[in-house]
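A.,

Following up on our hallway conversation. Structure tokens first:
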């Protein structure tokens, strides 16, 4: 399935379950070879002589570190261009920037604001474009989440990727944002059940729900929505949240602190709601204290640092598959 991937990775919604699975399996392979078998660079240097432009209009720790180091591993050059280096869509149109930049590099990894910015880059670029986060999607994050879930639940019960993923219950307690949208684009397709809880003021957009419902039906999974965290975590194997204030929403912080009252993930929430005995906690990071208690975040149930490290292996797999093609 790796050889059938679309040219770009804007959202996992554009990929089939098999294509998503092939990337996650490739990431597991890279992790084994590199971390446990000591292979310090890709023997074929698939990106030798190639440059990947990293256009970041927002801050990043994990995504940047994972991507620059992955490009080095693959033998290529990472050209980091932050928002003060080039002002995407400010000095010239995104369309023009896409055409110019892609005429000189072999791939583009871009962190932008509006979803439309990533689709414009993909449309007018002549080389593969991978989304490093936009306001609707974060595909490389959810690849890392799937790898982490496979590792954790596969260890408890040996099994193939989909054998492990199918039937797991994921509870999202938090904002209506890029992370849960990307989960909805990928997880139901993989046979995972989702229970999505956001404050009523922050609903999941209808088109995202519709697609998730279709994917879920095909994979015999379920997706439900509610506004009561206690009800939402019932039977959860995985409880996941994210910041209540995404990058760019800083001015809304005070209001959001009020709107998300009662949404902090805690041991008490999981107990009252009857989460499964061995539930785990996930968070894409960076974390703020309000959305999850320290007790949960630093507990044995929390796999957040394994999840963060897996950004590296999944980005490595995605870049190897997409940027070394041509
Ligand atoms: N999870 C994630 O994308 O983190 P960064 O914003 O630090 O890259
Ligand atoms: N929802 C967060 C995710 C950061 C990785 C944001 O967009 O800021």
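Then the amino acids I'd put at each of the 326 positions:
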């Amino acid at each position: 399935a790796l050889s059938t991937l679309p040219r770009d990775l804007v959202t996992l919604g554009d990929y089939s379950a098999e294509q998503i699975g092939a990337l996650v399996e490739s990431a597991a392979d890279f992790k084994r070879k590199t971390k446990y078998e000591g292979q310090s660079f890709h023997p074929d240097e698939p990106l030798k002589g190639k440059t990947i432009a990293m256009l970041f209009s927002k801050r990043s720790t994990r995504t940047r570190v994972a991507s620059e180091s992955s490009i080095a591993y693959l033998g290529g050059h990472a050209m980091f261009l932050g928002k003060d280096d080039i002002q995407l869509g400010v000095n010239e149109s995104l369309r023009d920037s896409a055409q110019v930049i892609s005429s000189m590099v072999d791939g583009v990894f871009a962190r932008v604001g509006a979803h439309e910015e990533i689709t414009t880059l993909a449309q007018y670029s002549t080389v593969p474009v991978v989304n490093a986060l936009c306001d609707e999607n974060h595909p490389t994050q959810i690849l890392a989440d799937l790898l982490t879930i496979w590792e954790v639940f596969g260890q408890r019960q040996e099994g193939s990727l989909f054998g492990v993923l199918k039937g797991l219950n994921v509870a999202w307690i938090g904002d209506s944002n890029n992370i849960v949208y990307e989960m909805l684009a990928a997880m139901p397709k993989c046979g995972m059940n989702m229970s999505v809880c956001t404050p009523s003021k922050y609903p999941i957009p209808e088109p995202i729900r519709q697609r998730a419902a279709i994917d879920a039906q095909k994979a015999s999974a379920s997706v439900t929505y509610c506004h009561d965290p206690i009800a939402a975590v019932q039977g959860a194997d995985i409880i996941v949240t994210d910041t209540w204030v995404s990058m760019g929403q800083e001015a809304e912080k005070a209001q959001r602190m009020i709107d998300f009252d009662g949404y902090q993930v805690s041991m008490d929430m999981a107990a009252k709601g009857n989460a499964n005995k061995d539930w785990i906690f996930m968070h894409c990071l960076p974390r703020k204290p309000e959305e999850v208690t320290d007790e949960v975040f630093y507990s044995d149930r929390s796999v957040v640092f394994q999840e963060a490290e897996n950004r590296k292996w999944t980005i490595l797999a995605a870049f190897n598959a997409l940027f070394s093609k041509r």
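The pocket of phosphoric acid mono(formamide)ester (ligand 1) is lined by residues 60-63, 133, 141, 284-286 (CB under 6 Å). Curious whether your intuition agrees with the design.

B.
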